[in-house]
Amino acid sequence: MSINEEQLAFDQAHIWHPYSSMINPPPMTPVESASGVRIKLSDGRELIDGMASWWSTIHGYNHPRLNAAAHGQIDKMSHVMFGGITHEPAIELARKLVEMTPEGLDRVFLADSGSVSAEVSMKMAIQYWHARGKPGKHRMLSLRNGYHGDTFGAMSVCDPVTGMHELFSGVLAQQFFIPRPETRFGQPLLDGDLDALEQMLSEHADEIAALILEPIVQGAGGMYFYSPEWLKGARALCDRYEVLMIADEIATGFGRTGKLFACEHAGISPDIICLGKALTGGYMTLAATLTTAHIGETISNGGAGCFMHGPTFMGNPLACAVANESLTLLQEQDWQAEVSRIEGQLKQQLAPAAALNNVAEVRALGAIGVVQLREPVTLAEIQPLFVDAGVWVRPFGKLVYVMPPYIMSNEDLATLCSAIIDVLGQLEN
Questions:
Q1: What are the alphabetically sorted keywords of the record (predicted)?
Q2: What is the largest distance, in Å, between two alpha-carbon atoms of the chain?
């Protein structure tokens, strides 16, 4: 059933959408269904989805195998508490994650959103040092331009100026920050690029529980691609100064950067990893935080005798069943070839955007394409132009970016790229 005008008016008057105002709410695009890489609007038009529902629908919408997994599980149980109870979907998902993730990450905490996964990772780090008899190590170190979620702990490690949470700065936990790496992806490590990290660790290691970062690709903080050599050096410095490393792979995990996990570009394993978004193929919310046996056992031997976290929907069977099928689907397919194909086409077909006056830079890595502008876009102005062009692209600030589902055809990707160039060209005229 299509959305009618009365329903749209109710939405506008009563429903908050992400980062939206209730005084001057942005216009909404009513969606009726989605299949493959296309979103069908209530008026019958179809849009090629360039956003993969914020990185998550890597297999596309309405996938028959993911649908079957959801149907099969919901007839058994959609949910059961995880306290004192276990079930096959959670066990098999944990098994897959231990096998897939970087070496040594074999203790699994299943949560219900990426932001909670980040919270859990920070609590793990703090509880670990408390159990080690070093309760003073309870602050986090983060990178400028980083983004880790919208809950309070996660907000505290987002960039305090560009991280969308500046007005909360007076009430958030005060963390340490260093500049993001200067060395770009594919460049040799610049002299002195690790100096800020080393200085911070040398001065404050007795206070810092963990360095939390998005490996290789900073997402909402600027779609910035940095050097694997920097990440490798950061891992060594964390070891030297006895600070844990948390890799927030919520956005980068499951192939998006061309490696199964972005840490693999640097050949490193973090102490804790956060996963989410593509975990269920975009079907529903689920997240996981993995750590080492050493950290898990140290926490468990501490004063609390357990890890102090347990969400109501932890280990949700329905989400776990779909996640299992999504990961199986990923492993059965040649996802590396698909992501490589997408990367090559994004680099080639977004390149002409560099000739536009308002474009500062064009870049691509894996299934991520970015056109960085000199001036911010006005969303209410640019969004309808993309819809009229038959694509769904949701820019923010100075960034017009895409992260297509891995199944997107060359033809649809070409349409997506040309639409970006055409719309940006219209804005200049």
A1: Aminotransferase, Biotin biosynthesis, Cytoplasm, Pyridoxal phosphate, S-adenosyl-L-methionine, Transferase
A2: 65
Judge whether 359 and 424 are in contact, CB under 8 Å.
yes
312 is in an annotated binding site: yes
- DSSP letters for 262-282: GGGGTT---SEEEE-GGGGTT
Q: Which DSSP string do the residues of 121-136 spell out, in sequence order?
A: HHHHHHHHHHHTT-TT
Q: Which domain holds residue 162?
A: 77-332
- Please tell me which residue in 19, 43, 76, 195 is annotated as part of the active site: 19
State the pLDDT at residue 168: 83
Q: What is the structure's pLDDT at 364?
A: 98
Q: Which of 301, 332, 363 is the last residue before a domain boundary?
A: 332
Q: How confident is the model at residue 27 (pLDDT cuts 50, 70, 90)?
A: confident
378 marked among binding-site residues: no
pLDDT tens across 181-227, in order? Answer: 999 999 999 999 999 999 999 999 999 999 999 999 999 989 999 99
Residue 272 sits in the same domain as residue 351: no
pLDDT digits over 151-179, tens only? 999 999 998 876 556 678 788 999 999 99
- The HSE-up count of residue 347 (CA atoms within 13 Å, CB side) is 9
Are residues 62 and 35 in contact, defined by beta-carbon separation less than 8 angstroms?
yes
226 marked as binding residue: no
19 is annotated as an active-site residue: yes
* Alpha-carbon distances of 229 from 145, 191, 214, 223, 266, rounded to whole Å: 19, 12, 14, 18, 6
Length of the chain (residues): 429
Active site residue 61: no
In a domain, 238, yes or no: yes
Same domain, 51 and 81: no
Q: Do the Cβ atoms of 163 and 173 come closer than 8 Å?
A: no
Q: Are residues 314 and 173 in the same domain?
A: yes
Domains held by the chain: number: 2
Same domain, 326 and 342: no
* 394 in a labelled binding site: yes
pLDDT per residue as tens digits for the range 271-322: 999 999 999 999 999 999 999 999 999 999 998 899 999 999 999 999 999 9
Annotation marks residue 406 as catalytic: no
Domain final residue, candidates 307, 332, 357: 332
Choosing from 96, 137, 277, 398, which is the catalytic residue?
Answer: 277
Which one from 248, 283, 398, 412 is the annotated catalytic residue?
Answer: 248
283 is annotated as an active-site residue: no
- 181 has binding-site annotation: no
311 known member of a binding site:
yes
The catalytic position among 128, 147, 241, 283 is 147
- Assigned domain for 294 exists: yes
